[in-house]
Each structure stands twice: as structure tokens, then as C-alpha cells.
Amino acid sequence: MCSSRKILWSLLLLSVVEVGLGVASIVLGAVGISWVRGHHKPQQGDASPVWSGLCFLVCGMCGVLCARKRTGLIMILFSACCICGLIGGILNFQFVRALNKRPDSMQSIHLAAMTLALMGISSCTLSTWLTCRLASSEQQRMFLEREHSLHHSHEMTDKETLDNSSNGIPQISYNGHTAASP
User: Fold this and answer.
1) Rounded to an integer, what distance in angstroms lies between the CA atom of residue 137 and that of residue 139?
2) Which of 36, 48, 121, 177 could cross-link to 95 by cystine, CB 3.0-4.6 Å?
3) Best CA proximity match to 131, nearest among 180, 72, 90, 85
4) pTM reported for the whole predicted model
5) Cα-based distances in Å from 85 to 15, 89, 124
């Protein structure tokens, strides 16, 4: 079983990769849009690499935040961002694939956009899985802390009941037997 530290470092590395994929997809989408505007009227899907890149970028930034602060709310936020990134990547891939069928299409830019989308989809899927592993690890850690705390409180309760058994009269022990002092 992976330790929580390994999961955190993997999540952090994958989140940085997602930020990079997001920036690269946004830049590639901007280049594609500027090329399209110079040659013909923009169509639906020309800006999809920008939108999926934005989803990947937000997902990566939430992943970095999740690796730093492991609260339940941030893990849920990161999982939701991963799902949005996954959906954005799938839609981007489908739109760019449809654009690639045009006769005047930019084959290399579309191929790069689809590759970035597939890499983003993969990283979002892995990030979601790692977040579930991290949440499980954190839940187990909190359970163990709570169990230790309860065990400690039972020891303190037992000690207090032994101390209160004398009812204010000091106890003296002779050979294992207790006797009240005069």
C-alpha cells in the first residue's frame, strides 16, 4: 500500500502536469483561432482547445491546493474539477475530430490539440483516482487518531475513578493492602 506521502507527491506532480497541459492547450487553441480567423469564418469547436485548457488549468491548480491542504471540502472540489476537466477534454477531442474532417483543416494543430486532450483526460482520470486514495488514507489516519484519543481518555477516566475511591481519606498501602490513615 502506498503511503500518504507518496500519494501526495504523485498528486502534486500530476497537478503540475495538468497545469502545463492547460497552458499548452490554451496557447494551441489561441494559435488555432488566430489562424482560422485569417482564412475563413470560425466554426463551433474552433475554441474548444481553449475551454478544455481552462478546465485542465483550474483542475491542476485545485490539485496543487489539495496536495497542500488535505481537507474534505478541498478534496471534493478537486474531484469535481477533475470531472469537469474530463468532460471538457472529451468534448474538445470530439469537436477537434469533427473539425479535422474539413478539407482546409490544420492537420498538425488538430493532431496536437487531440493529443493534449487525451493527455488531459488521462491526467484527470488518474487525479480522481489518487484523490480517492488520498481521502481513504486521510480517513484512516483520522480514525487512528480518534481511536488513540479515545483510548487515552479511557485511561484518564480509570485513573480518576481510582483516585476518587478514597472519598477524601488518604490511603496507605501495606504489602499490597490499602488501609485508611487515622
Assistant:
1) 5
2) 48
3) 72
4) 0.71
5) 12, 6, 6
